[in-house]
Amino acid sequence: MLKKKVIISACLLGYLCRYDGKTKKDLKIVDAFSNDEIIPFCPEAPLFGTPREKISVLEIDGVNKIISNDTNRDVTQLLEDEIKSFVKLHPSVQKIVLKSKSPSCGNGTTPIVNEEKKVIKLGDGLATKIFKQVYKDIKIKDELNYL
Ligand code: SF4
Q: What's the predicted TM-score (pTM) here?
């Protein structure tokens, strides 16, 4: 029988890919999908290395941009290209579980800041936004609500 293909944020699987060089390994996620074909996903580490400067979702004139916190670099296009390359490699998957609150992976839980770096609302990270457009039939989950 074909295994279910599941995209999971790599930091939830134990990869040391977070901005601070740490992981967010979540054993309940690892266990829950142990019989499936897991596709680890992290768009930030290959682009910016680990550890790296933190990035945030900044809303400018109603448009979300991904900006590095200290150097104010706009990395939106870089990140978008990386995510779209990943999607091309995995056109068909059955489940997606991403890390909450991340500027890339958060699903309705990502802090969106204004130009004064004040949180104005919660929203989607850039990968989640793109995944919702591409994997239209899949309800994206996170580690707080993964089944
Ligand atoms: S939340 Fe997403 S982008 Fe951030 S470290 Fe985890 S997998 Fe990578």
A: 0.97
